[in-house]
Design a protein that fits this description.
Layout lengths: L1 H23 L1 H42 L2 H33 L22 H6 L6 H6 L3 H18 L4 H22 L2 H23 L1 H26 L4 H18 L2 H14 L5 H14 L2 H17 L6 H17 L6 H12 L7 H4 L3 H26 L1 H12 L6
Length: about 425
């Protein structure tokens, strides 16, 4: 917990420093942010992003080769996606209920004149699904297209499993490369407290107290919904499905949650979240290396909560009463969109635009919330990353009969001399 404590202290100090500079020295903050805070955070994010693609590739190849049986791999994939879709539906339902009860859009005065927001068109679901198959694997690696990397890595892993002893030396290289990546993660995480301080101080300093105050109730509803989802849904899944202690999970996984919070990137958090799942949470490499990268791309529970609260909030601001049928449409569209926009940058706002269009609400309303979205995005990402780990633990528990075989496969790899 030493690293977790240092990151937490850095997070608190960064928030305080950012708020103080915004209130007392806004002009000086611009220079401090440009030459110190932003570079500090950018270096940290770049270091961990540097490891994401090779770590995902080597770990998925290794994990798939260890599982060996494509049918078992298919079962793990189906369980994971079913878990993600179910929790996404629950997440947005919680958000809609809380926003409907608290009514953040009816408190205060919101000026909707002159608002504008240019929404991007979401790709068709078929395009997203067909786009999973990389026509050029090298391009997929260069562009960090996670779905294509996962697909290609699984293919390589299956080939290694079927070829067996004939490619034992290749499997040994993959195993050693994976160990190198995990070691590099440990080195990069030593810089985490400094990167966290820079990222948080910059984010809070840029937003300022006025923006937070103006949208205070909206922010509170989103944060409460995130906490309720984390405690009840993830806590319940850990207790009753994964048969694990939720409190111990928080203690063991806390460093990954703080990195997710400070970077606002599930992908960038993958190296540390996978390492903790394998070393602290007891998830086999073969399951962690498949489920967590998939979750980093598909799982959008935190984003779904934002969409639920934002939709009800915008409806209240514009004086629109959403019917039960329209609210049900919001849930369905959000769940389906989480798959259709899985590999799309900025998917959260694209999904929100889709939801607003589906219930005939003005997309321009997004401009009301976009100013403080960066702060809420940090909390959403922490929830998303936690959900990926919880899913990996759940799948690990359900595959316990096969877990010993996975472990034996991992142990039987040729050891480095």
């Amino acid at each position: 917990m030493k690293l977790a404590k240092h990151i937490l202290i850095a997070l608190i100090l960064g928030a305080v420093a950012g708020l103080v500079m915004n209130l007392s020295m806004p002009n000086a903050f611009t220079s401090i942010d440009k030459y110190f805070l932003t570079p500090l955070g950018t270096i940290f994010i770049s270091l961990i992003k540097m490891l994401v693609v090779p770590l995902v590739f080597f770990s998925i190849v290794l994990g798939t080769a260890n599982i060996g049986d494509p049918k078992k791999l298919g079962k793990i994939g189906v369980k994971s996606i079913a878990f993600f879709l179910a929790t996404t539906a629950i997440a947005i339902t919680i958000a809609i209920i809380l926003a409907s009860i608290i009514k953040p859009g009816t408190v205060g005065t919101f000026n909707t004149e002159g608002l504008s927001y240019e929404s991007q068109e979401a790709p068709a679901v078929t395009d997203t699904l067909l786009g999973i198959i990389p026509t050029n694997p090298v391009a997929a690696f260069v562009e960090a297209n996670m779905l294509q990397i996962i697909f290609f890595s699984v293919f390589i892993g299956i080939a290694l499993a079927f070829l067996g002893d004939r490619v034992k030396s290749a499997l040994k290289v993959v195993d050693e490369a994976n160990e190198i990546m995990l070691y590099l993660v440990s080195l990069v995480m030593k810089f985490a407290p400094y990167g966290t301080f820079g990222l948080i101080a910059s984010a809070i300093g840029k937003q300022g107290f006025d923006a937070i105050k103006a949208m205070g109730l909206y922010m509170i509803v989103v944060l409460v919904a995130l906490i309720v989802h984390f405690v009840l849904v993830y806590g319940g899944a850990l207790k009753f499905l994964a048969k694990k202690n939720p409190i111990q999970f928080v203690k063991d996984f806390f460093p990954a949650m703080t990195v997710a919070f400070s970077t606002s990137s599930s992908g960038a958090t993958l190296p540390i979240s996978m390492k903790l799942a394998q070393t602290k949470l007891g998830v086999p490499k073969s399951i962690s290396s498949f489920v967590q990268p998939l979750g980093a791309t598909v799982n959008m529970d935190g984003t779904a909560i934002m969409q639920g609260v934002a939709t009800v909030f915008i409806a209240q601001v514009y004086g629109v009463n959403l019917t039960i049928t329209e609210l049900a449409i919001v849930v369905i569209i959000a769940v389906l969109a989480s798959i259709g926009t899985a590999a799309v940058p900025g998917a959260g706002l694209i999904m929100l635009a889709m939801v607003l269009n589906a219930v005939s609400l003005p997309v321009e309303g997004i401009a009301l919330i976009i100013g403080i979205d960066r702060i809420l995005d940090m909390a959403r990402t922490a929830v998303n990353v936690s959900g990926d780990a919880v899913c990996a633990m759940y799948v690990s528990q359900t595959e316990k009969g096969s877990e010993e075989q996975y472990t034996e496969n991992e142990k039987s790899l040729p050891q480095a001399q």
